[in-house]
Amino acid sequence: MMAMEPPPRPSSALFDVYLRLRPSNSAHLRFLTVEERDDSHPTHITVRPLVNDNRKRAVERFAFTQVFEEDARQMDIFKGTGIVPMIEGVLGAPGHHGQDGLLATLGVTGSGKSHTILGTKSQRGLVQMTLDVLFQNCEEQLVQSFYGAPAFSSLAAADVSEANMFTASSYLDSMYGDNQSERFPSRANTPAPDCSFVSQGTSRSNKIPRSSTLPQAPSVADIQIPTDPTAEYAIVVSMYEVYNDRIFDLLTGNAMKSKHPNVKRRALLFKSTEQSPERKVVAGLTKIVCGSFEESMMVLETGLMERKVAGTGSNAVSSRSHGFFCVEVKKRDAQYKGSWSSSTLSIVDLAGSERARNAKTAGSTLAEAGKINESLMYLGQCMQMRADHQEGSKNVVPFRQCKLTELLFSNSFPSSTRSTQHIPPQKSIMIVTADAQGDYNATSQILRYSALAREVTVPRTPSYTSTLPTGPRPGTACSGRSTPSALLDELESSAAEIARLQQELSIFALRLSEETARRKAAEQSWAAAEDHMSTLEQEIRDECYLEMENAVDQERRRWQATLDNEQDNQQAHLDSKVDVVIKATKAQMRLEEPVKVYEDPDPEVRERNEELERENEVLRAKIEQLEREAMGRSASPIKKMRILKSKKWEDPESRLFGLDD
Ligand SMILES: Nc1ncnc2c1ncn2[C@@H]1O[C@H](COP(=O)(O)OP(=O)(O)OP(=O)(O)O)[C@@H](O)[C@H]1O
Questions:
Q1: Which ipTM score applies to this complex?
Q2: pLDDT band at 37 (very low <50, low <70, confident <90, very high)
Q3: pLDDT tens, position by position, 268-327
Q4: For the segment 469-522, what is each residue's pLDDT rounded down to a tens digit?
Q5: Which residue has the CA at smallest separation from atom 14 of ligand 1?
Q6: What is the superkingdom listed in this entry's lineage (predicted)?
Q7: How far is the CA of 50 from the centre of ligand 1 (A)?
């Protein structure tokens, strides 16, 4: 095996890559060994396929900037991975802009990414230590910012990302009320009991925790970094997550304020803004200006509450999203004030890659896993290209394939535009976490694309020559076709050829397994896309159905209204006709009265007439009474007619009234 020196990090390389091994609680055999070096820290590891692996895979050797063994503590990682110089870069040299920094953790689910970044109940993570170092060193030079202060207004006005900016005290008061922020006005020195706001699984109704309950170890009091003595600073914290390839603000407080934990969240865009036409930014984020380390801790804890975590078979509390914790350091001349320059340190807790089979995921969680694996596959491609880039190829890093890589890599390259030329490209550190006794396939796949260099060898095959008998074999010499030494030579060259072919074969087998893994990831994302499409189709169908139903309902109501109108018109028409008939009948009856006087002088007839007239009088009185009754019930003329008719049948006398059909 050839010696492989750790590659010096060329200026074109995107990351320094560190490997952190976690103490394993698995009973499996270790498949990874760290190569010890006498002179300095270990930089190489060897990954051997498991003994019971029947696929005869090659042994792989990987190089990293540095390898941290299982006993490495949080402080070893903080001091050993170049985070401190990165913070120094973000603060900027006197009179110069700061340099953006990116620190990300990558690894299989459960390998210790969140442990490294966010710590535990008793140990701080890299985020907390970074914030502590920043505040500890800049506290004297922090600008006073409260609502109405000119500094706060100028900070808000200088922000190029259309952010909603708050001071920490007003933000925390709006989240927890009762001037809770006054509970942490200064740096706390109280030793911490073993609990954390986040890890306690605090319910949404909980009050803000005391800062003394958060872990205080390891202390960073001994870490001194130089600041620009001519500058004043402001430290602005924001947090977001990339979930299913969409960006969500983690400081909106929706999860804290809403009674419904599944409240619908609005995705943010990564775009150019009016004030930042050349550099894309996450637009519309909530940004909090923090005046002390304790305030920044409370903001961090508030954001972590909102981060989506879902239990899977692989890890009880697994990060199902890529979490971004951003600390912006704003800087301006302390004497002449002037404009604020800004540089950002982003600390990223990437979601873990996992195999659906291992994680026992299903339904939406499987779709999440598909999205996570897809984004990590694109990240792998970018890192692979980076490695090729290093080797002199002109490959362009394809970082625009998904939100995650766009957010990670957009600021990694020197800008070509004049206005942003003075901004140096970001410095990036990747910490790969691994369990040497965990999932061999998933871990070796991540190591393959994240390592700075890789070398493939096959286990040494036993030499055929060493097992060959030295004397002539019976029958061989007598064959006359070949001498024993010629046969030996032939055998040796065949053995060498076999060894070469075996080596090639295992390299091909390795490539095949890589391709198979890629194909599986692609298939998974394809399946997730199909799932998404069928959900979309169902949603569209439901929408169309609802729209159609509404349209039909509207049409039915319109038609009913027309019909009612028509019936009313007909009724009115009939009513008016009946009125005319009644009036005509009454007039007729009134006309008939005088005729009776002169009609028949015959006494018998006269008597009869008089009798009839009396009867008529009685009937008219009855009719009038009935009409009054009918009017009293406000009946329509048609109803009046019906009443009259029914009266007629009840009272035989009414038959004399001339309204028979
Ligand atoms: N270096 C370590 N020392 C001690 N415990 C560790 C270490 N790394 C991880 N662990 C423990 O292993 C468990 C899983 O770790 P962690 O949650 O950090 O994994 P992860 O990679 O972030 O997983 P996921 O991607 O699913 O979120 C936790 O209980 C954590 O405390």
A1: 0.97
A2: confident
A3: 999 888 888 878 899 999 999 998 899 999 999 888 887 754 444 444 455 678 899 999
A4: 444 444 444 444 567 777 877 787 777 778 777 767 777 777 787 788 888 888
A5: 110
A6: Eukaryota
A7: 23
Bridge partners for 282 per DSSP: 270
**Per-residue pLDDT tens for 123-153?**
999 999 999 999 999 888 888 766 666 778 8
Write the residue with the smallest CA distance to atom 11 of ligand 1. 112
Q: Which of 68, 115, 318, 446 to mutate to test the pocket of ligand 1 (most atoms within 8 A of CB)?
A: 115
Q: Which atom of ligand 1 is nearest to the CA of 315?
A: 26
Residues 585, 587: Cα–Cα separation, whole Å:
5
Q: Determine the distance separating the centroid of ligand 1 and the alpha carbon of 273, expressed in angstroms.
A: 38
Which ligand 1 atom sits nearest the alpha carbon of residue 350? 25
Buried b (16+ CB within 10 A) or exposed e, 502-523: ebeebeeebeebeeebeeebee
> How far, in Å, is the centroid of ligand 1 from the Cα of 434?
10
Q: How far apart are CA 11 and CA 389, in angstroms?
A: 11
- Top CATH class of 16-457 equals alpha beta
What ranges do the domains of the chain cover? 16-457, 600-661
Cis-peptide into 218, omega within 30 deg = yes
